Amino acid sequence: MSLRHAILVLLQDQEASGYDLAREFANSIGLVWNATHQQIYLELGKLNDQNMVKFRHIPQDGKPDKKLYRITEEGRDELIRWLRKPAAPPRIRDAFMVKIAGGALSDSSSILRELDDQADLRRERLHTFEALARKLDEQGRDKDLFTYLTLRRGILDQQAWLHWADEVKTALNKREILSTSA
Amino acid sequence: MSLRHAILVLLQDQEASGYDLAREFANSIGLVWNATHQQIYLELGKLNDQNMVKFRHIPQDGKPDKKLYRITEEGRDELIRWLRKPAAPPRIRDAFMVKIAGGALSDSSSILRELDDQADLRRERLHTFEALARKLDEQGRDKDLFTYLTLRRGILDQQAWLHWADEVKTALNKREILSTSA
DNA sequence: ACTACTTATTCAACGGATTGCGCAGCAATA
DNA sequence: TATTGCTGCGCAATCCGTTGAATAAGTAGT
Predict the structure, then answer these.
(1) Would you tell me which residues 93-152 of chain B have a C-beta closer than 8 angstroms to some C-beta of chain A?
(2) What is the pLDDT of residues B29-72, one digit of tens each?
(3) Share of chain A above pLDDT 90, in %
(4) Residue ranges of the alpha helices (H) in chain A?
(5) Cα–chain center distance at B178
């Protein structure tokens, strides 16, 4: 139940619209928490009802009107309170891994195909994360240390995954050879 | 929506009660998918209504009666169908990481404290996974190759996490020194 | 000219997940 | 003796999340 807190974190430094936040959830924070725009708008509504955020209405021409949200004192208090108490360990729900665990039922080729698809995705992520980390490093990483550390987490995660994928490949290939030669 | 499939995977090799499954979700499969007993009993009910599983009633003395579930033909078909179509990428929701991203608001000491707690948990997991992997290795890992690969995933994951935690520590310590000497 | 994408917000329906509770008896420990 | 813990099942309320759609106007590409 901490979509609200992720939003409050984002609103710490800047005033933003629901749309802006949705974009950030698709990029930066998406690394550690994801949410769709529907969820975000809903949560912003609740946060507003509870006086954690307030907004001002910005009419625009050429584009639809928007609401720019900013965090309130109460919101900041709530965020700090939340930061202080220990976080619940993340619940793991990885469908692809369930497939691996049940892999005895599938044939190796279809596993390998999906493994490659997932690996492509991870490799892509790895490159974007590395590019962002490099950019931060050039600017002196201390300014945005926590963004940098978050990126490092993502990078190490992708690398570990890709390493695992290699292990799977070699294991399945060895197996393939054994079963065809038998 | 694949708690059902995780259950079907478990029922592949053995007949089991809801209670048995709950235990396995707390251990082996819990590595990749977790669920509480309420969810499991509910899902078993649904699976039974859809003829994916069937059960027999086992009266016991000393202990409460139980229901032993086993997978049906239909259930196996459904599982195979699911295994064939690509899995959606897992959505990430890591509250602790949200805290890191919002870390500028907390003080280093409280972050470090929580980091240590999480690290203890990860180290503990790492040891249990490694012990299980070693046991499988002795028995010749090919028999249970997919369990072995799942464990390897868990091991690499914990190692990557712990490595990251070290990076965070050194980064925050360096920072601490800079701010106190200034 | 038509299609597709971007900006911007919101509603409605459904299903999945969490939290809290309740029952029931046995075994072991403090 | 009281409490905790294990085996075993289940219901109900609520909340969270996903999917799908609607509205509305501008811009860019085929």
Answers:
(1) 93-106, 110, 114, 117-118, 121, 142, 145-147, 149-150, 152
(2) 999 999 999 999 999 999 999 999 999 999 887 788 899 999 99
(3) 74
(4) 3-13, 18-26, 37-49, 73-84, 95-101, 108-138, 145-181
(5) 40
Return mean pLDDT, chain B. 92
Query: Which of A87-96, A137-146, A167-176 has the weakest average pLDDT?
Result: A137-146
Per-residue model confidence as pLDDT tens digits over A57-96: 998 877 778 999 999 999 999 999 999 999 988 999 999 9
Contact A79 B93 (CB under 8 A): no
Q: What is the pLDDT of residues B131-170, one digit of tens each?
A: 999 989 888 767 789 999 999 999 999 999 999 999 999 9
All structural domains of chain A with their residue ranges: 3-84, 95-181
Measured in residues, chain B has a length of 182
Could you tell me how many residues make up chain A? 182
Structure token pair of residue A115: 């493994």
Residue range A26-41, pLDDT digits in tens: 888 999 999 999 999 9
Q: Which residues 11 to 70 of B reach strand C, CB within 7 A?
A: 35-36, 38-39, 62-64
CA nearest to B32, candidates B154, B158, B160, B155: B154
What's the pLDDT score for residue A141? 67
C-alpha B3/C-alpha A150 separation (Å) is 30
Q: Which residue of B has its CA nearest to A96?
A: B87
Those residues whose C-beta lies under 8 Å from the C-beta of residue B13, and which sit 6 or more positions away, are none
The position carrying tokens 């490099």 is A134
Written as six digits, the tokens of A121 are: 């995705």
Neighbours of A134 (CB within 10 A): 10
Tokens coding B86: 């690509």
CATH code: domain A3-84 is: 1.10.10.10
A46 CA → C12 C1’, Å: 18
Q: How far apart are CA B8 and CA B43, in angstroms?
A: 11
Burial class for B74, CB neighbours closer than 10 Å (0-12, 13-18, 19+): middle
